[in-house]
Automatic annotation (TrEMBL), chains A, B:
Pfam families in UniProt: Ldh_2
Family: Belongs to the LDH2/MDH2 oxidoreductase family.
Keywords carried by this UniProt record: Oxidoreductase
GO molecular function, one term: oxidoreductase activity
Domain of life: Eukaryota
Keyword Disulfide bond: no
InterPro entries with a match to the protein in the record: Mal/L-sulf/L-lact_DH-like_ah (IPR043144), Mal/L-sulf/L-lact_DH-like_NADP (IPR043143), Mal/L-sulfo/L-lacto_DH-like_sf (IPR036111), Malate/L-lactate_DH-like (IPR003767)
Keyword Oxidoreductase included in the entry's annotation: yes
This protein's name: Uncharacterized oxidoreductase YjmC
Protein source organism: Vanessa tameamea
Length: 357, 357
């Protein structure tokens, strides 16, 4: 592990994206999205993804300087063509529309086609929560989830996220893949030489496997809930619901029609679909924030089964991680990440990040 | 098991509710909601619940002849006071508002306070899907779900449901508790004398248990996903999200503040919260229904890991069960259910159901 000043990591990511042709604002917004993932403790969606975006720009699969546009609009909805820009560009565009509509009619519901990977889903929900609204964000992704009983994958990890503002600076924050776990967790078990818990992943025959290496090679994740006897079909249903709101609604690629996941950037335009929702709780019962905060505190104060493991409210993990990051002023990266970033700096002739300790 | 003509079971439930004072329409709508659960193969939410509603009317905890009313309204939202009517009465009232708003502005989002148990959540989503819309319905329920790491329950089984119309008469239908399983499944394992799969339920110390009898007695369910190592906190997060949309938004009772579950009807008004959403997919990309149907068919045609267990699309189980019910014209009930219904008929001086075979 090595530490890098948070501001320097942000600068580096912005520079890399600019060096391959992204305009300053697009590069900055995408870099802010990535550093936020590193800041709140989800490194899989941070600097780790940079090269993927860079390669998609180099290959022409992503066009960072296009403009997203509204194709259809009603009082509370909009249908947006991302026009193949970076995920952060169109997600700001679309969530801003949802927020404005929510302030006018109570709800804004925006679907997006023609997009690229848009990072941590929770980043977009939180954008609405920061404006006093309930926010939701969904995206489809490359196939990795095997529907219950299926040998093969047919849906992505299709995350859903929800954020809402409580009183006293509390924020409800839920950002979850609809698979049991992300691929990164399997990779981690493999590196540690440990087996997998049941319910994470399948082998090439479609059977549950606890062999981390085989699971990683197969790349076929089980839905949240695991096997059929533990209601894995609910996780499959949730992933399908996310696809309903994203690709099926927006007319982007969907499910089995999405290109497979790779960092090499040779797969052509992703044409992903997203969905952004904002709702103004002022339209319902007064005292929303107080009730939410009361709930969050009640959950934290529940007696834990194991005294050393206190109960966490949704978002507590991310809140704690971000406070730690901010107090240190640095983000930590594994050696492999630092090495590949140094190589990328060289390749793009960009000033490398400085490892401070 | 014994069979009863579907129409007779509907008649019986309507009569029982009328006999304790519910007006004809309210009784009819509640009975239709219950028979639908028996029809699609979810008997826990059918006739099985009748006595619970009847007792709540007798005790005065539920006031079936009140009128629900709109407390606040915007172009796309409404806040409704159920005024303690039966769940079916206010759910029709609220989902009709959501549907009308969706047809006008694209989205309708309605929250309800002061309500009673409103049956199978999917019934309300499907009401919107039958009108060509995406429908969603959520409700909070009495505490049964233990947040990850907690010894005790603090949320209900908080179901979420989504339905949407495909082309060629396909319907996407997802109706799921956010716990791994419902209490009824634990009861079934206990009756069969079998142990529980991991990840279903906790013992009084907050540890996972596979002892069906102990689990049933404890009444503390694990969230979808099971333990922490299989991402049970995601199921907890989903249950909390449902509460955000229901009790926290509507100002009804919520989470730990909801009365505990009992059939005896001595707990005072339930003051439950619901949320109903309708969205018109016509506001997004043309071809919504075709894409949805293509997806549903693709999932069904995926090669199964076990050839005897074909992959099911969301709603296939319910569709199959309802076709079977309709072809037979009868619903089947376990002996215990038939006995308690006969006793109820006697108690209320209502014509009993006729067991036809």
């Amino acid at each position: 592990m090595g530490k890098v000043a948070t501001a320097d990591a942000l600068r580096f990511m912005t520079d890399c994206l600019k060096s391959v042709g992204a305009a300053a604002k697009a590069a900055q917004q995408q870099a802010e999205l990535l550093i936020e993932a590193d800041r709140v403790g989800h490194p899989s969606h941070g600097l780790n993804r940079l090269e993927f975006y860079v390669n998609d720009i180099i290959s022409g699969a992503c066009k960072p300087n296009n403009q997203p546009k509204i194709l259809k609009e009603s009082a509370s909805t909009a249908w947006v063509d991302a026009n193949n820009v970076l995920g952060a560009t169109v997600s700001h565009f679309a969530m801003d529309i949802a927020i404005n509509k929510a302030k006018q009619t109570g709800v804004g519901w925006v679907t997006v086609k023609g997009s690229n990977h848009n990072g941590m889903a929770g980043y977009w929900s939180k954008k609405a929560a920061d404006q006093g609204l309930m926010g939701m964000a969904f995206t489809n992704t490359s196939p990795l989830l095997a529907p219950t009983r299926s040998k093969k994958s047919a849906l992505g990890t299709n995350p859903l996220s929800v954020a809402a503002p409580g009183s006293d600076k509390e924020t409800f924050y839920l950002d979850m893949a609809t698979t049991a776990v992300a691929v990164g967790k399997i990779e981690m078990q493999m590196r540690k030489g440990e087996t997998l818990p049941k319910g994470w992943a399948q082998d090439p025959d479609g059977k549950e496997t606890q062999d981390a290496e085989l699971a990683f090679k197969t790349g076929c994740l089980m839905p949240l809930g695991g096997g059929e006897d533990t209601s894995g079909y609910k996780g499959f249903g949730l992933a399908a619901m996310v696809e309903l709101f994203c690709g099926i609604s927006s007319g982007s690629n969907y499910g089995h029609k999405i290109r497979s996941w790779s960092h090499s950037g040779d797969g052509g335009p992703a044409n992903l679909g997203h969905c952004f929702i904002a709702v103004d709780p002022e339209n319902f019962a007064p005292g929303f924030g107080d009730r939410l905060t009361e709930c969050m505190r009640h959950w934290r104060e529940l007696e834990p089964a194991d005294k050393s493991l206190p109960v966490l409210a949704p978002g507590d993990k991310e809140k704690k991680a971000s406070q730690l990051t901010d107090s240190r002023g640095t983000v930590s990266y594994v050696k492999q990440q630092l090495d590949s970033s140094a190589a990328l700096a060289k390749k793009l002739s960009v000033k490398p990040m400085e490892v401070v300790e």
